[in-house]
What we know:
five-stranded parallel β-sheet, 65% helix, elongated
Amino acid sequence: MTSTLTSLAMLKVHVDQGQDYLDYLQPFILQILVDHKPGPVTDIVVKDYIRTDFGLAIPERAVQVVLKRLSRKYPLKKEQGVYQITGDLPDPRIGPEKADADRHIRAVVAGLKEFSKSTLKPIVADDVAVTAICSFLSQFNIPCIRAYLRGTAIPTVEDHHDAQVILVSKYVLTLQNKDPERFESFLVVVTGHMLANALLCPDLQNAPKTYKGVTFYLDTPLLVRRLGLEGEPKQASVENLIRLLHDLGARVATFSHSRDELEHVVTGAADHIEAPDGRGAIVMEARTRGTTKSDMLLLAGQIDDKLSQAGIEVLSTPRYIEDFQIGEAEFAEALDDEVSYFNPRAKDYDINSVRSIYVLREGTAPTGIERSRAVLVTSNAGFSRAAFQYGQRHRESREVSSVITDFSLANTAWLKAPLGAPNLPMTEVLAFSYAALQPSKELLDKYLSEIDKLEKRGKITSRDHQILRSSYLAQDEMMSLTLGEEDALTEQTIKETLRRVTDEIKKEENDRLRAEQAAHDLTLEKLAAERAEKEQIQRRLYWRCARSAKRWSWAIAALAAALLLGGVATGLGLMSSAPLMGWILLIGSGLATILSALDLMVGFSVKEMRVKLEKRLLTQFLKREAAATGLKLEDTE
Length: 637
């Protein structure tokens, strides 16, 4: 199976080069012809070599198309229905690509083995890790479109079990949060797998490049996801799909009865958010986000606006037309074989949706999605299987099912323009991983029953019970420990879940306290830095103003002293014939008289005058500088 992962990673290289998706297979087949030189060259022989050398299960039809293309460029001649090699073929030398792909695979496999040590089922061998990854990838299939005879290009995985899928899902989400480089390596493999899905149906090559004229109707669960009620990963997946469909010319809508069902779902969830027995993806997500009942009821009143903003039209459900009505009782039996409905009304809504697609396809027998007029899109693979099987008896859905899964549509739409939606593989794998970690109803019921028993027996406290029941961390840890297997849910695993959740809560509290302390310390550091900076500014401002005040006070004191000396000289009989000097001496004489009087009354002196003047000037200069720099006056006095 390692060769399968390597080959998928190699396919990713070619999409980055913008090649046609059937051209992705050419280097593989050319390498087979060079290495094995089969004679004659038949699609069956080449198909078998692709399986043994590269680990991919490719239909014979795809091999036929590629061989035909190769024969136009290389010495490969068709005689009596088979090809013969008639000359030297160029060696594609895909060794470097294989080495690069191996690097991605080794990183992913080693990371999974290390990650699994935190679970109760650690992986020791590389081949077990590879099998787990292939099991995960095989879930990304494209069922219920007749042209696809297989759901995936990955060969059947032996010893596959759901616990492997859950383990890899947990690993993927951990990589996304903590190891972006290895996450990119994993995405290389996922993208290659989505490309390999195209090789299952070479007829896609001749299909129109757009979905113009087709309306895709989203069922209620997809509307729930688009509104973000089941978490951001699922919301991003539906959002990207809608954007891609619009880019490809499609119309995205929902039936009016699906819109009504959506409102019922939202109001119903609102009633259970605060209820002790409330459960389900919507309720758990609301509790995780802190969404209240009133928030949900407000959302219920905004559904039409929210759908419009999301690019989803609400179209009236078609009226009943007798000639194009399905056998609802018969289809209901098919649904019961594939889908477990907890709400009988949900099955009625699904039947109405399928009936409506048949009405909209009135009088047609589409051979491809692009010519099907209307398609219902669902996240429920069982629903799509039931519709596919039922549709084999009706010309309107014999070639193209009335219902396809959102991943089938995302994959086929993405193949039309891989470089136009480069993030779609990432959003799809995150949405799937997130959904895979939601416990089944059976496992959740057993879990709730077991914690009730433990509380009654006094083995856990009422607070422990509340944590285990309500904390989203508890559900996450429970899935990590059990990997979704009911038999693994024991008293021991529940207590270990409680221990991990309690430790995580304490860690979060400690982290929060440390963060608060760090923030407090940072604030003190900033205040100290600001204070030091202000002090430095004030110091420079003060001494600059002090120097100016001293200079000005001494200058004024010197002038006053000169006038005073002149006045004394005048008193002694000194006269000047120059008018200006005469005035100066006169002023000096008056000043001397005034200062003498002040000296007699209050003990005034020029020296004291200069000191007081210096202080006054210093205050005035400081006020002026404070206004210019924005410092408060009280900080400068």
